[in-house]
Amino acid sequence: MMMNDATLRKIDLNLLLAFSVLMQERNVSRAADRLLLGQPGLSAALRRLRETLDDELFVRVGRGLQPTPRALSIAPAIEDALSGIERAIRPQADFDPASWQGEFRIGMCDNLESAFFGPLVARLLQLSPGARLIGIASEKRDAARRLDEGVFDFSVSVHDEPASWHIRAPLFNQASICIYDEAQLKLKAPLSLEDFANVAHVTVSFEGNASTSIDTALSRTGHVRRVVATVPRFSALPTALRAMPAISVVPESIGRCMAQLHGLTICAPPLSLPADPVTMLYRRVDQADGRARWFRRLFLDVADEALVASGCRVSISRAAA
Q1: CA–CA separation, 300 vs 318, rounded Å?
Q2: Which of 4, 117, 206, 294 lies 20 to 30 Å (CA to CA) from residue 219?
Q3: Could you give a GO molecular-function term held by this entry (predicted)?
Q4: Distance CA 184, CA 182 (A)
Q5: CB-hemisphere CA count at 13 Å for 251?
């Protein structure tokens, strides 16, 4: 539906800000506090926006608000507009990493941390001697919330669909590889499907779930694997594999690191497994911030070099820059 000029003139910046904060908070009281506006004032702004756009925009569900399909569809454009205004009026200063003193904070799950954290901090200290890098354990289920709380500058993980005030940039599709101790498990690569299905498996799950997409893929071939142990972190996996004849399927980036550090054997799985899309999640308002942009680009460069150096078959997508 095309809006006429009279309709557009009714939508001022305050209404757009109210809409944006309500999308983030999903609660009138919290949104009003953030806007330094009383609840009656925010309710009045929301009523004007509903009348102008001829849509409820938000419906009450329990104690919170649920955006309507119309609200979800217009949210990205409104966030882009507000971010553009902020970039236009914010004083822009060139970021000088060599003279900067302070922290950079990054959220990563432990498999990506093993692959990228060491090279990242080494490069950071070369370019910004006064900086400190803080790594934050991050899972995709809480990455968006912790990003909004300012816990880290950005998150690198397999993220869910982002909110309208976040940007999710593609990094690479992470394939899986098999890893085991050849001294314990007397198998030579390439593995047959029967060997893969019949040996003991160790899985990695923060929540203790033994069943994964691997079991789904195996079931399509008529096979079932035997999971003998589940560990909560990838860091526990090498010692487990060195202690018993078992195999594990892990992301390629950390699998290659483990193989180099612990003398383990890696090989391709004998069946097709889905690749996980690893992405970078950051706030839309930080898109043009000089310091944040420099840190994101530094990570892209370091991660790309680390993937190549480890022998991974993927590289960082330049779309993330």
Answers
A1: 8
A2: 206
A3: DNA binding
A4: 5
A5: 24
d(CA 127, CA 124): 5
Joined together, the tokens standing for residue 308 give 């190549």
Three-class SS of residue 191? coil
3-state secondary structure 170-211: EEEEECEEEEECCCCCCCCCCCCHHHHHHCEEEEECCCCCCC
CA distance 18 to 16: 5
| One-letter amino acid of 183 | A
> Which strand (E) or helix (H) includes residue 164?
none
Token look-up 């079991």 returns 215
Q: Are the C-beta atoms of residues 158 and 278 closer than 8 Å to each other?
A: yes
For the question of whether the overall pTM of this predicted structure is more than 0.85, the answer is: no
Residues 103, 152: Cα–Cα separation, whole Å: 10
Helical axes 110-127 vs 252-262, angle rounded to 10°: 80
Instruction: Give the Å distances, CA to CA, from 266 to 18, 133, 259.
Output: 53, 31, 7
Nearest C-alpha neighbor of 74 from the set 174, 164, 141: 164
Going from the C-alpha of 299 to that of each of 52, 121, 136, 319, the distances in angstroms are 44, 10, 15, 14
CA gap 116, 229 in Å, rounded: 27
Rounded to whole angstroms, the Cα distance separating 114 from 151 reads: 20
pLDDT digits (tens, 9 = 90+) for 52-88: 888 999 999 888 899 999 999 989 888 888 887 776 6
Report the C-alpha gap between 300 and 116 in whole angstroms.
10
